[in-house]
Amino acid sequence: MQQLHLLKSFKIIDGNTEARKSAYRGIAAMPRPRLPPNLVTKLAHPPTPKEAPRLWNAKRRIKGSVGLTPGQFLQIEKIPPSKWFDEYKERKESLDRKLSIEAAGETEPQSWKEGLESSEPGALSIEAAGETEPQSSKEGSEPSETSELDEETDEIELPPWKPLSRQDVDAIQKLRNGDGVLEWWKLDRKHLDKFMDAHPELRRVSSDVRSFIWETGLEMDQSSISALLQNPVRFFSASANVPHETRKQIYFPEPSDAVVLMRTPHLGPRYAAFDVPRHFSKVDLRAYLKNVYNVDVLHIRSVVVQHKVERKDPTDPYTQGPLFRPPSSKKMTCQLAQPFVYPEEVESFDAWEYKDYWNSNRAMVANERNKTSFGTTHPNKKHRQSIAQQAQDLLKGRVKWAPTWQKLGDQPATGSP
Questions:
Q1: Backbone angles phi, psi at 297, to 5 degrees
Q2: Domains of the chain, first to last
Q3: Does the pLDDT value for residue 273 go beyond 90?
């Protein structure tokens, strides 16, 4: 019989040799586990973008901060601002010498003309009559890779291009470090705006990014500046990148952090007791009463009250849950400089629907209680009392008895129009 049972089990198990051997030895073969597919959840109703304050430290903020496009960022890496500023300074000096020579009536050397003409991307073209806006490439030339990356970017209104004066060039030149790199992000607000307006790529940066560079430029380095210009929204979303002093903080206090005045008339008119958070100190309460209510405090006593041990599930008829101790509470008693009178107690709670709330709460608790074992093992006393009251009314003649079909004959059926 045992062999016959094992032979029948072969039909259930897969036809591999190992399963047959294990079944023959009397060992149950484990089926291959079937792993559920990866669950990919999506919102049924995705949230629509709403207007919100532009916070630098917000995770989900309006994408209003404008940095460099991918093509402009590649151009910045190819020609750094230090190299661009050196070329700008050299051509500025050449232009000054050219204008001074023309004013003196002398002829211009041929080498200066060759130095003024340049076809490199991002270079400046300075004419004898004055300075014009820099062009990224010559007219009629083939489009570069950087121009193709900028085709899909949004069009924004750029500020008018303004050249740097001689005084601005001298002030910017002072911010070179030991390696010869121009730390332009450490300029003051006046020269920073002029430098970024004159640069062919940095002109596109929005005003809030400029303000952030001016406020935190002394603490930033080349890598952080590159990350900021490449993607300002992603840079601002990381709270570690934004100093605490420059954030727009929104304070939401904890609901449990409340100072509650307790009604203790037995202490006298010069003493007031408060229920305060546990992290509240005597100095905090003294400053709170003085700044908010303009009340002077002479002395403060504090005590931490430890609560009794309770059960986590007192409704459980068997174990009532494990033991635990609720968090302790802190109370402070203040001696005031001037006596005070407690506010009048509220007598009418009709505005808060006090009676309706408690009646519905009692009915809900009674209904839930009747669904448990208590309702099946205990009689319904209210139902018994109502039946007894109806019998007394019938015996004393207060109510005339009639069959149900006659008593309710003139009333419409339940659910009928």
A1: -115, 130
A2: 1-30 (no CATH), 70-136+155-246 (no CATH), 260-336 (3.30.70.330)
A3: yes
